[in-house]
Structures are given as C-alpha cells and as structure tokens.
Amino acid sequence: MTASPLALAVNGREHQLFERLVPFIRRNAHVGEPVAVVGLGYVGLPTAYSLAACGARVTGLDTSARRLTEIRAGEVDLPEAQRRGLAEVLESGALRLSDNAAVLTEADTVIVCVPTPVDEDRTPDLSALRAACESVVAHVRNGQTIILTSTTFVGTTRMLLVEPLRRRGLRVGTDVHVAFSPERIDPGNLDHTQRETPRIVGGVTRSCAERAAHVIGRTTDSVYLVGSPEAAELTKLYENIFRAVNLALANEIADVCRDLDLDPVEVTIAAGTKPYGFLGSFPGPGVGGHCIPCDPHYLLWQLREHGVRVPLIEQAMRSIEHRPDQVVRRVLEELVDAAVPPRGARVLIAGVSYKAGVRDLRESPALPIISGLRRAGVHVSYYDPLIPEVVLEDGTELQSVPDPGQDCDLVLMHTVHPGLDYGWATRCPLVIDATYQFDAAAHRRVV
C-alpha cells in the first residue's frame, strides 16, 4: 500500500481519506503562455520566477519602483540558486518587470500575490488586495484566468473579483475564469520547495478550477481541486490557525518543562517518534512573519461580524501576542537574580528577524521584546547581519552592532542564523536561550 501524503491524525486511516482528494492531471502544457503576477513580494517573486523558469512568458507587476530596482539588482531574499536563476530569466526576457497595470491585458492568466496584513487593532487590512483586484478588473479581457493567492477571509474572491467582474457584464466561468489558490511558500526553508509542495485550487466553476490548476501546476507536481473558492480560502486559514494553536501549546509545554527541569526539545522529539496522532512544534520567543500572527485574525474578524465565538483560537492568539512580554520578564528576572540592576543593564539581542535565514522583520517578536526591555530602563543593542537596521514603534532607530559580545551583561538568543559564528555569546556571563536549542553555552537559561 502506497503511503498517503495526508498529514492527518486519524489513526491510520489516511490512505482511505486520500481517495477523497480530487487531483488535477495537467495535460497539453503550452510553453510560452503569457502570465502576469501582481505583487512581487515573498510570494509573488518566487511564483514569477518559477513560472518563467518552466517556460511561461511572465510579466511581474509591482507598484514599488524600489522593489523593482532591488529585483533587477538581485537584492532579494531568495536562496542562492534562485537568485542566479532569477538573473537568468531577467536577462533572457522570460521575466519582465513593470509598474504599469496596462500590461495585464497582455496576459492569459493573472495571479494576484499581494500582502494581506492586519492593522494595529488586528483588523484585516485589505487596502493592497483591494487595489490590486480593482486594477485587475479594470484591465480584464475576455478569455483571461484570474487567480487570487493572498490569504484572506472566506468570501473575498467573490467580493473583490467575481462580483466586480459581473458588474462589468462578464460571465464568470464563460468569459473569464476565477479561482483561489492559497500560497504555500516557506521562506528560508530549502526542504519545502514549490515543486514538492502540493497546492489547492478552488474555482467558481469546475472550468475555472481546471484553468487555474493548469497554471498553478506549472510550479508544483501536485494540485488538488476543492469545490469552491470559499473552501480553498478556509483551507489556508485552517492551516495557519492550526500552526498558531500548536505553537501556543509548544510554548506552554516549554513553561511546564522549565518548572519540571526538563528539556522541551527532547520531550517534543520523543513525542514525535509516535507515527500517528502527534505533530509537534518547538517553542520560541514568539511568533513572527507574514502568516501566523496575522492570518487567524482574518477569520476571527469575520466571525465576530457574525457574532460567533471560537474560544480556543482566540486564546491561542492571545497567548502568541503576549509571548514577547513573557520573554521580557524572564530577562529581567535573570538580571535581578544575578544582582544586575535592570535599569542601565546592557542586554544584547542575538538575531532580530522573525525566522532563521531570512531578512524579514514582519511581526518579529524581537521588536516588542526590545521595546519592553527599553521601557524597563535596559540598554538594548542587537546583532543581526541580515537586518542592519530596525525602527521601533516609537521611531527609535537601532543599528546592528559590528562586534557582538563586548561589554554585555546578558545576551538573549532570539534568532540563530545558519552560517554565522555565535561563539562570542558563550563568553557572556548571562545567556537566555529563547530558541531552546543554543547548546553551545553550557550556562544558558531558557525562557
């Protein structure tokens, strides 16, 4: 019996449920088909590159002239092999860059890959997505396929694409085709390539789904169809909500392990030997990035509008939000225990990006940790060659120190980037390890 690719804790019945998936079998691939990718950020750029590398004629559209300049110069957060490949498709013309939305009319397929953040009140910010969809609708032509990939609340595809297209007199499923296919890009992780990561496609009609899957199938070996854009939208939210709840639990188990003088990483790995019913995560200083701290709030906001409560998800997101405060308290406790007055103490943060190996500060726990320590009177500096400068919420600018470990009372291991030497941290008298995996310092304490 062939192993099922489903990651489900259903006690060995995965192979039976796998039969319920609807795989898309791509036929008659057309080399050179014109595709436009709207938004060239952490999702759009790898998508555009991947399509260009496999033979499509791709136009990457972005409203930021600075971003287009960075891409042309190769100053992008991609693995080295992809940066070289990006230079090649740009030089060959397989990938063109533009800031003029008029190029959308030239494409047979338009893929929308713009950010969907939340504001300071954790309310969905659809400004970029709304503007992108308005532009796509304004430049649409008969025969196009439009694919939305940006994570958002259930019903967005119909609200921002289907209904405006119908108001223009276009029949969705006949004149134009619309689908939602959530992105599944894992920045900085070479183990999860686009080619090996399955994708989900939900079309307004079956024809919409198949046309979208034909294009998405150029970037991955596996595409599965679901019955509607709404099913695909909720699939993406469920994925990230599961991760959020799992991470909140991992941090809570880490607190339990500290009270019991146990290693949470050892315990998690041991639990992971069970071949069913368990999918563990490792604890850390908090949860950052573009997905987990933001995406669940799209569903929470939508459910609040309908008067629906989901206490487990709500509590998990509160736990995630408050995790940096817990790290701050631990640092202050260690300083006091070592007879170092927090006010005026020198604390160095090792790594501030939200994830190892990426140049990305979005929602990084390091920022509220730094701010919280500064409010307690601590003198905070940081070391992160990938992030040369940070701007705090109050406007304070900090630069990465060139020589870490000098004149430091305590170092907080926040993000350990591969390929960097952190031997200096072992010489610091106090080490708080928020990664739970910095074993080089025998005297380290964990959060």
UniProtKB/TrEMBL annotation:
GO biological process, one term: polysaccharide biosynthetic process
One Pfam family from the record: UDPG_MGDP_dh_N
An example Gene Ontology molecular-function term: oxidoreductase activity, acting on the CH-CH group of donors, NAD or NADP as acceptor
InterPro entries registered for this protein in UniProt: 6-PGluconate_DH-like_C_sf, NAD(P)-bd_dom_sf, UDP-Glc/GDP-Man, UDP-Glc/GDP-Man_DH_C, UDP-Glc/GDP-Man_DH_C_sf, UDP-Glc/GDP-Man_DH_dimer, UDP-Glc/GDP-Man_DH_N, UDP_ManNAc/GlcNAc_DH
Family: Belongs to the UDP-glucose/GDP-mannose dehydrogenase family.
Protein name per Swiss-Prot or TrEMBL: UDP-glucose/GDP-mannose dehydrogenase
Species name: Saccharopolyspora erythraea (strain ATCC 11635 / DSM 40517 / JCM 4748 / NBRC 13426 / NCIMB 8594 / NRRL 2338)
Lineage of producing organism: Bacteria, Bacillati, Actinomycetota, Actinomycetes, Pseudonocardiales
